[in-house]
């Protein structure tokens, strides 16, 4: 597949997650972690909720406002971390952070799915904070959970 075709495919994946976000919404009740974060540089904001049981992320939801990169990344992240242990979710977040900063990462054996579509954001340093907002919120949430 040529670079242009791959670039077009990745843009389509990003726009699909932006227009049809997965796991958008909130949980009822009180059995979840809640994290609010924003990117003051561009105004992106996220309200992330995580259900964690026995050290594993069992479900994730988000609400927020922001650019297509920020909101599609939140959608992809909520899909990617479901069923993962806290350690696995943080490891995936670190991998994503490296990838989005243009570092060479080994994704062999990892099922990162649609997340790969955001790799091109590394060419636009001003957008890195947009792409990592949801991931930083997740790290903050599970970090607080592991302290309890």
TrEMBL record:
CDD domains: IscU_like. One of its GO terms (molecular function) is iron ion binding. GO terms for biological process: iron-sulfur cluster assembly. Residues 10-130 form the NIF system FeS cluster assembly NifU N-terminal domain. Coiled coil: none annotated. It comes from the Bacteria. Belongs to the NifU family. This is Nitrogen fixation protein NifU. It comes from Salinibacillus kushneri.
């Amino acid at each position: 597949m040529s670079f242009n075709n791959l670039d077009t495919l990745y843009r389509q994946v990003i726009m699909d997650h932006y227009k049809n976000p997965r796991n958008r919404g909130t949980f009822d009740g009180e059995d979840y972690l809640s994290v609010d974060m924003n990117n003051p540089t561009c105004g992106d904001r996220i309200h992330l909720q995580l259900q964690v049981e026995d050290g594993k992320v069992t479900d994730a939801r988000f609400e927020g406002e922001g650019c297509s990169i920020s909101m599609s990344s939140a959608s992809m992240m909520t899909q990617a971390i479901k069923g993962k242990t806290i350690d696995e979710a943080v490891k995936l977040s670190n991998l994503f952070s490296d990838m989005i900063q243009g570092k060479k990462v080994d994704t062999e054996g990892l099922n990162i799915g649609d997340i790969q579509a955001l790799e091109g954001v590394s060419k636009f340093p001003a957008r890195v904070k947009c792409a990592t907002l949801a991931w930083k919120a997740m790290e903050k949430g599970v970090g607080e959970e592991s302290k309890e």
